[in-house]
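P.,

For your records, the input lines for the assembly:
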Amino acid sequence: MKKYISIVIILLSTATIFFPCNKGSNSALKNDTTNSLPIPPVLSPYKKNKNSSQYRIVVKSGLTEFFRDKPVLTYGYNSDVLGPVIRVRRGEVVKIQVKNSLREYTTVHWHGLLVPGNMDGGPHQVIAPDGTWNAEFKIDQPAATAWYHPHGLGTTAIQVYKGLAGMIIIDDDTSENLQIPKDYGRDDIPLIIQDRRFDESGYPVYLTSMRDIMEGMKGDVILVNGKVEPTVSLKRGIYRFRILNGSNARKYTLRFSGDHDFYQIASDGGFLNKPVKMKSLSITPGERAEILVKFINIQDGDYIYLNDGDRSFLKIIIRGDKNDITGIPEKLVNIGRIPKTNIASERFFSLAGMGHHVSINGKQMNMNRIDETVRLNSKEIWEIRSSSGSMGMGMMNSQDVYHNFHIHGVQFQVLSRSNEPVPENERGWKDTIFIENESSARIIMRFFHKGVFMYHCHILEHEDNGM
Ligand code: C2O
Ligand code: CU
Ligand code: CU
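Structure tokens returned:
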């Protein structure tokens, strides 16, 4: 209790310095009239041959109208906000030249890609203002939906909040041969879900309350692909949504209106063995999920909503028929379970705290310290436990302060959750896992790449606070 009191005092003083006056009442703000769901373009290589592609990305600032006639400063990759989809194929060598035209340092991390440490784009690969970073790596992993975002020490959260995030799609023979929707932007639709808080003039505000500082920034407006609560018009048929939780701290419980069911077909690192039928999907920051949804027995002109809990943020209008309706496949891939033999090491990670006092195993990030050393090609089991404890403060619900755990440079399998079996939709490849308060998970993985890598909580404010 005593500790919490001192935290409160420190935080109250910071809060008054940084955050003058804000109450997010946006009732006077108008959504853009054509509030249709934007589809991020696919980045074209400037050079391409059989086994390699070369891309250029400029990290820049720009103006975005989240609300009509209210342009605000945002950041984007080759764009005012967010970035293009980088679409790569297993086996190819990808070269990406990243130019930083911001007036601050940044990095570009390829979240979910299995690349050597010096190409990972973590806090060790900073790009100075006006600087350029040449990333080059071979794509050597199954088809998946990944993403890229900044990862500077202490600047990740604010730079993502300003708009820096983009999707990466990896294709392989399997993804190309499966009978599932794969026409990008038509029946294979990216949904980058993020939240923001705006002031009366439509300007995004950041960390305006004690709660934000303790839990991480959770806005009250949901954006999809950079648009405030948009609408998309689809024909009747089966759709694939590639969902990325690109939010700083908000966890979503996704449901369609009318309890419409759907099938999860992929998790962070690629396809699940078979589609998993579900009615709701929980997704925490950094995680991805691909789902298939049947919009078939729906009246022309009817709406379906995608909700977080009971709050709608994407309106889907169904109009007309699409001819090439296919079913939901029985099987997708065949991922074996990693056997629990020849384990080089078992490690334990304790996630704790909130606000500025978050830690892993009681420690906070230090660029000059390596916390764990793993042998190349070895197999390990990690147990991750989250124990923020009861908050001891009436204003905060312990369920609202949560952590998740992300590891760079690997895709892992979940062995158990608090000694219980793992749900069907978590039996594929993962790189980020939600660890509910007072619970734990055991994961198993093999390390294939050399270098210095991060593991951290993907609640971005926690990450920036050293977690
Ligand atoms: Cu999504 Cu360490 O990052
Ligand atoms: Cu990552
Ligand atoms: Cu955390």
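Two observations worth noting. The radius of gyration is 21 Å. The helical segments are 2-18, 156-161, 173-177, 210-215, 460-464.

Regards
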